[in-house]
Every structure is written in structure tokens, then in C-alpha cells.
Amino acid sequence: MWIPTELFWAYLVAISLLTVTPGVDTLLVMRNAGRGGLERGLQDGCVTSVGICSGLFIHATLSALGISVLLVETAWAFTALKWAGACYLIWLGLSSLRQALRRAPEERSEPEAAGVRPSRMKPLTASVAFREGLLSNVLNPKTALFYMALLPQFIDPAGNAFQQSLFLAGVHFVLAMVWQCALAVLVVKSRRLGVGQGVKRTLNALTGGFFVAIGGKLATQ
Description:
This protein is mostly helical.
């Protein structure tokens, strides 16, 4: 089960660099942390991170069992995964763009603010935050490729590949959770410092545009 020290430290450096590199997971955590109220923002961001990081164990298991190799080498299966991931990213992007275009309560007319024609988005529940994070990670073919191509490089062939894969995924889980939860704290802190609705809507618009663009690029690659 135990991984040679030199392999473990090499993996730790590689996975740390991968974790802090901005990407879809980072933006999703920041979006959900800033989407709820001040009290719920941190919870929403951290629960989203739990969902994202839980997907790492799925990828590690598939990699250890060799299913990732089969998936990548089977054109129709990989294409299906790619399109599912692309559609999901585009859906997330459109959700962010709709939120960016939605007026805040203080920007509405008095009858609307009084509740005559409410149009607020449904609150982000813990189950929704977890599901968004999990699907974002599991449906990302780039993560599958990473775990298929990189993870085996840090596994000792003399040991149990499955146990080593889960252990390395656990290390990735801890690092990613610490990093993403720290980002969620920063987002919540920035809101407490008085970041206005205009900034929030701009962030939603940029995040939504990024998700749609990445989803479109993924679909056409």
C-alpha cells in the first residue's frame, strides 16, 4: 500500500500545482460562495468543494480498474462523456448569466420590492451545491484524462494499485478542499467588506461566459 517517498513527493508537487491552477472547479466554488447570503455563502462554497473533491475518488477508482483507459480508447464512450460535460458546463453558464441579468431587490420598482411580482432565484440548498460540484468533476473528461495519464506514474507496481490510487486521491481531496474553502472564505469576506451588486453581477456574467465558452470549446474539440 505504501508509496515510495520519492514518488509521493513528486505527486504532491504536481497535484499542488494542479489544484491552485484556476479552472472550472475554482469558478464554480467562487460562484456558489457568492451566490447565497453572507451566512450561507461559506457553507455553499464548501459543500460545492466537497462535491467536487468527492468526484476525485470516482476518477481514481475508474483509473485503478482500467475503465478510464477503456473509456478513452472507445470513441463513442469518450464522445458521450465529452458532450455530457459540455452540456453541463453550458447549463451552469446560462444559469450564471440569468442570475447576472436578474435585478437585485433594491433595483426593483416599489411594487416588485413589496412582493407583488417576486422573481428571486431559488436558494441554493446543500444538496444542489454538492450535486453541482460532483457532476462538474465527474463529467469533466480532462479530469478523467489526468487521472488516467498522471496517476499511474506515481503508483508503485509492486503494491496494491487500487489502494494507492485511493490514497493519492485522498491527498488530492485534502489539498483541494483546503484551497477551495479558502477561496470561499475570500469571496464571503469580500462581500462583508461591501462589494456591491454591480460587482456580483459582473462576476456572475464573467463566470457564466467562461462556463459557456469552455463548454462550447469542449464540445467542438
